[in-house]
């Protein structure tokens, strides 16, 4: 990516905006959602740790499920089948 000026020109503003949001976001508690929440995390994810997923439970008055999968923050790149199975189970 760094060696591709056109790609850098396109991606850099997006990455900067993401970083600004990450640095300035402040959580504001709201009324919990009346729907189930399914939270997934990669077991080696240091940004969104599996233990941090438990905090999502307070965001729902419905059921809450958490699942830890092999991988890091980008586990979805290697766990598409597992994600698909979880989504299909949730919708059943």
Automatic annotation (TrEMBL):
Residues 2-82 form the Thioesterase domain. One of its GO terms (biological process) is lipid biosynthetic process. Gene3D superfamilies: alpha/beta hydrolase. InterPro entries: AB_hydrolase_fold, TEII, Thioesterase. Belongs to the thioesterase family. PANTHER family: S-ACYL FATTY ACID SYNTHASE THIOESTERASE, MEDIUM CHAIN, THIOESTERASE. This is Thioesterase domain-containing protein. The lineage of its organism: unclassified sequences, metagenomes, ecological metagenomes.
